[in-house]
Amino acid sequence: MKREIKYLLFAASVFTCAHADILHDWTFNETNGTLMPAVSDDGTLTDVAWSANINGADVQGNAYDIRRNGTGTNQSYANIVDISSGQIWIGMDLFWSFEGGSTGENVKIGVATANFSTGGTELAAVQLTGTRDGNRTTTLTGYANEVAPGADIPGLVIETGPSSDVGGSNGTYNFVLGVDLDNDTYDIWYRKDFTGAYTQLGTTTATGDGVIRSLYVDVNGTMTSNPTENFSIDRIFITDVNPIPEPSTFALVGLTGLAALFAVANTSMTCNAPAVIGRGLFYALKCLP
């Protein structure tokens, strides 16, 4: 019995290792409508509050719903504890309906190298732009506004809607912005309808002073041309472990589970076998006769 328990604990530890450490986690899931400065931070680090409520925003359907009319506050930021090395990822669960106009709607969610309260400089961001040029479209772009050689990731049209005044370019997406502070690069990943595999938009350079001090949301344009026009944030989080599943990880987890079950069944086996899970190497499987 001890042997079986040992292997079952090992199998459980394999799946535990796959979970990311969520440093900050803001989820708009309160049915009574919690605005941005009051939303709870459920991450492992000290709670951080957002600076302001964006004009024309409230909470509907358990999401932060922005319907800005082109005036008033257009930006909110969260000043986090300095991150100066390694890699971090910012995850976003977003959905929207853009009607588009001559200048379009523009939303950026990203990180900065200085606190926005003192004039922060944007390092890298996910940028969504709704425009009307024939059909209404939503374009995803990687945005970098740092000193050279910081560069944007070229835009990709991810949604297209009708050209009439009825309807627009609608989307429901997960986005992940990854920033590598050691190599001065960033990349963007996306997937539609909160399911399936992620696709990489691209990766490029994002240089700065090597420290991330702030996370921000920046909204420009007018979202009141149609009663259904909006941009909604369901969740934003920061993690220091890549949240994008790797196909090889799932396969190796499966093989490791089979190995553990085989070890339980075959009590005569003696070994000291490594199990590779994602990027980690664990020598936890010790087979005893």
Written overview of the protein:
The protein has about 290 residues and is mainly beta. The protein folds into two domains: about 1-10 and about 245-285, no CATH class; about 20-240, Jelly Rolls (Sandwich). It contains two helices and 16 strands. The strands form three sheets. Strands 1, 2, 3, 5, 10, 11, 12 and 14 form an eight-stranded antiparallel sheet that branches. A six-stranded antiparallel sheet has the order 4-13-6-7-8-9, with no helix packed on it. A two-stranded antiparallel ribbon has the order 15-16. Mean pLDDT is about 75; it is low at about 1-20 and about 250-289.
Features:
single chain, 289 residues, mainly beta, Jelly Rolls, 2 domains, eight-stranded antiparallel β-sheet, disordered N terminus
Summed up:
This protein has 289 residues and is mostly beta strands.
How many strands? 16
Question: Class of the largest domain, according to the CATH hierarchy?
Answer: Mainly Beta
What is the first-to-last residue Cα distance?
13 Å
- Binned, the helix content reads 10-25%
Write down the overall geometry.
Answer: globular
Report the CATH topology name of the largest domain: Jelly Rolls
Structural class: mainly beta
Query: What is the level-2 CATH architecture name of the largest domain?
Result: Sandwich
Q: Classify the beta-strand content into a percent band.
A: over 45%
Number of structurally distinct domains: 2
| Weakly predicted, low-confidence segments | 1-19, 249-289
Give the biggest beta sheet: 8 strands, antiparallel
**How many DSSP helices?**
2
The gyration radius over C-alpha positions equals: 22 Å
N-to-C SSE string, H for helix and E for strand: HEEEEEEEEEEEEEEHEE
Taking all residues together, what is the mean pLDDT? 73
